């Protein structure tokens, strides 16, 4: 059982929602669609489910071309950002609804709903209506509905986005367990890089309707193929700066120049772009290639153990994420240090140059 | 937490209290005043106690008008609510036709009530009206000014024409507020159109439909203008509903006491039935 998108695209009039996309989801895999709002995550999911018909390209499932097959005749389930349940049915009937449509015997329904309720901690509230539940419980109900029918493909469209922080963490921890011994393909859309890293699995970075990179989650984070993937997969946003290479020096457009890291000395002279992740920029020098960056402090976000400092360097915003509390005053000029040994180098077209 | 008590709040409430007093409570009290006294003019009053109330409650004339009123109101509710929901379901939810449909639906609501009555009166006249003449040409013996059945038919047709739009617009507002995701989820579950209506659209429309039923109930129970222009309560007393009867007693016969008593009874019936409707329709909404 594998899901394959072959050159799938979706256009509406002059607008292209999804550019020709190739994607293979392996049996039993957990796949993450990572991208900002309007990147095309939901649209791509609808194409996978069969809720939308691609303008061109083919969708294959288990070696069968299912491109024109309606969602009714595919074994798919979906959980949405909004908590979608039948409003005037009890939790029990809600979970049972897909089984009833499939004409499963009533005692089999009872058994499966019971198991599902146990798994999602809904057993005490089976007789209540969705409106009498908390947001977290409503979403659990929706999730139970999606899981109970043993779908081959489970699509989760930002299921945790409307939950408050505590509930989100709780459900986020439970999710991998829910799918651990199922052989369905899971596709999970999120805007948060942190969530992708927590779940592991495979990630597809989406940007303006295009999959920029697809592969093992940790791998993509560490080795983005291009600037866009690096930007999609970075929160706080990755710092991007133009540099010019002359001989063995890199010159930052915003000032300082520094020795070209050993790995890149073979590059031809010219213009490049470097990306430095926020946690490689700190108020104190770290590593042996720390380069000073001076800027005016725009915002400081202090958590219990960490400081996120946004500062402006000649009209360009940089972000530093560091341990410890650094209560810089807004509006003051400060010197921060970027560890250039960790910088990623991209060519003029935004492609990563792998040393 | 300690709440601070502050009398300033009264200054914000007072204007509303004054307004309600002037446009509701004081006029109502005048009616209460008339309902328990007998007057022969010249501002001379005699105490009458509950005489007028007893008289009204026992009068067959009131019973007949009330029966006709209930038949009328329930008939139009049974037609307008399902019809309104059905029309709302067929209206497009997006695209260029939405404003066209909305304006078409709103048109009957924008026509002054007495004009509606006059329009239908002329439309239904058996000799010159398009409807009346056509029906007669088709072989029906139709004359709403002489035959009670025809008068009722015309009256109900007029009310359905005039007010179904209100139900349509309210039901439509309920429908468009349902996120697309619900329909997708139902499609994924494999739900059929009737199941979608029964388990998604109807429950989601429940609140607006409650409002629609209440509004239509109250308005139809108080119908006067269109009715008085169309049939004036005739032929005979065939279409004399409560409001027409009340005006006959109050202004026709100038029986101010009984008319005031009847107004109050009328008011209490509407209040009671509205409460019953609301409670019935909302009984599952408690959390």
Which key terms come to mind for this protein?
A: 355 residues; alpha+beta; 6-stranded mixed beta sheet; 5-stranded antiparallel beta sheet; 8 helices; B: mainly alpha; MetI-like fold; two-stranded antiparallel ribbon; 2 strands; 2% strand
Can I get a quick summary?
The complex is a heterodimer of chains A (355) and B (287). Chain A is of the alpha+beta class. Helices cover 23% and strands 35% of the residues of chain A.
Structural class computed from helices and strand pairing of chain B: mainly alpha
Say what the CATH topology of the largest domain in chain A is: Rossmann fold
Which regions of chain B are unreliable across 5 or more consecutive residues at pLDDT < 50?
A: none
Task: Give the biggest sheet of chain B.
Answer: 2 strands, antiparallel
* Biggest interface between chains: A-B, 23 and 16 residues
CATH class membership of chain B: Mainly Alpha
Strand order of the largest sheet of chain B: 1-2
SSE class of chain A: alpha+beta
Low-confidence stretches of chain A: none
CATH A-level architecture of chain B: Orthogonal Bundle
**Quantity of strands of chain A, as a count:** 20
Order of helices and strands of chain B: HEEHHHHHHHHHHH
Major β-sheet annotation of chain A = 6 strands, mixed
| CATH superfamily grouping of chain B | MetI-like
Number of domains of chain B: 1
Strand residue content of chain B: under 5%
Architecture per CATH nomenclature, i.e. the level-2 architecture of the largest domain in chain A: 3-Layer(aba) Sandwich
- The proportion of residues forming helix of chain B, as a percent range, comes to over 70%
